[in-house]
Amino acid sequence: MRFQSIAATALAYAVFATPVLAQDRSGWPASFTVGTASQGGTYFAYGSGWANFVAKNLGVSGGAEITGGPVQNMALVHTGDLKLGLTTMGPAREAVDGQSPLAPGMKMDNVCAMFPMYETPFSIAALSSSGIASISDIPPGATIGFGPAGSTSDTYFPRMMEALGVDFKRRNGSWSDLGGQLQDGLIDVVAFAAGIPIPAVSQLEVQTDVNVIGMNDDEAKTITDSFPVSEFIIPASTYQSLDEPSRVVSMWNFAMVNCDMPESFVYEVTKLTMENNSEMVSIHRAALHSVPENYTQNQALPWHPGAARWFNENGYPIDDAAIKH
Predict the structure, then answer these.
(1) CATH number of 120-250
(2) Considering only CA atoms, which of 20, 21, 103, 75 is closest in space to residue 256?
(3) Is 203 helix (H, G, I), strand (E, B) or coil?
(4) Can you say how many angstroms the Cα of residue 286 is from the centroid of all Cα atoms in its chain?
(5) Beta carbons of 157 and 194 less than 8 angstroms apart
(6) pTM for the structure as a whole
(7) How confident is the model at residue 5 (pLDDT cuts 50, 70, 90)?
(8) Whole-angstrom distance, CA of residue 194 vs CA of residue 102
(9) CA-based angle 209:213:216, to the nearest 5?
(10) Domain limits, the chain
């Protein structure tokens, strides 16, 4: 399958950047590509900006690739087709256990954790003109857009809607495309799983009135009891459409790397990212949570030795048993 590639070459930065001089660059890749997701979503914005940031500062050609999201990224990084990628803990756990829908029975055990990114809230949007202001307002047979096929949203949100008794027709597509379909009245609801603010929602609410829909007490309890998620509050300041905080559920995201990548390279990438949070936040606001303190949220992937070395050196202990050797 052919994917679009968004490249940020080292040549483009040669005049402007002073590369970090690592002590040992043996085995470093000549270039790298980060697996993200569809355009209009947070993964693409975060991943492409991060790839450019790393390329600029380490002097290695790098860029982002549009993919189907976390499930596909796990497969591409496991095989080495991509060196770096972004994933969510639910799909990561399923892939490591050999339960990936892309390759049932294949244990994707050559994928290692690098650093925590942010939580992915599962949120819902509908046009205000639809009259849909709560999950219970979604009419039977409504068409719901769940994002790209195989994405975190597409993997978990349909199951969540079924658990909440919602009768729906399923639609897949990029977040940008689904936002356009919602605005044109071709679908009734978009069920997003992405870091906030979601670019497609921010763009949509500039064009029309939008309802960003949360969960009530019973709905939140049903979902947290049944899925690997926790409650999450979307601040009212996130979207102009919110008058008050919105309670939803969320799942953590991590940057990952093929376990065969050189330790010194992964160490430098981890160091650069974890020690420059203000620059990461300038890429996307979700990076406010891309801080080392959140490393404990990794419950699915072994740590790459290079990443683990940085965390251990800086007071964030990782047991040897949790490191890939």
Answers:
(1) 3.40.190.10
(2) 75
(3) helix
(4) 10
(5) no
(6) 0.79
(7) very low
(8) 21
(9) 150
(10) 5-118+254-322, 120-250
Radius of gyration of the chain (CA): 19
Residue by residue, DSSP assigns 44-110 as HHHHHHHHHHHHHHHT-EEEEE--S-HHHHHHHHHHTSSSEEEEEHHHHHHHHTT--TTSTT----S
Residue-wise pLDDT tens digits, 47-68: 999 999 999 999 999 999 999 8
**Assigned CATH for 5-118+254-322:** 3.40.190.10
- Output b/e per residue, 197-214; b: 16+ Cβ within 10 A: bbbbbbbbbeeeebbbbb
- Span between the terminal Cα atoms of the chain, in Å: 32
Provide, for the chain, the percentages of residues in helix, strand and coil under a 3-state DSSP scheme, each rounded to the nearest 5: 40, 20, 40
Q: In this predicted model, what pLDDT tens digit does every residue of 65-117 receive, in sequence order?
A: 999 899 999 999 999 999 999 999 999 999 999 999 888 999 999 999 999 99
CB-based contact 178:171 (threshold 8 Å): yes
For 175-320, strand residue ranges (E) read 189-193, 210-213, 230-234, 246-258
Which residue(s) pair with 257 in the sheet? 84, 112
- 160-174 burial, b if ≥16 CB within 10 A, otherwise e? bbeebebebeebbbb
Do 120-250 and 5-118+254-322 fall under one CATH topology?
A: yes
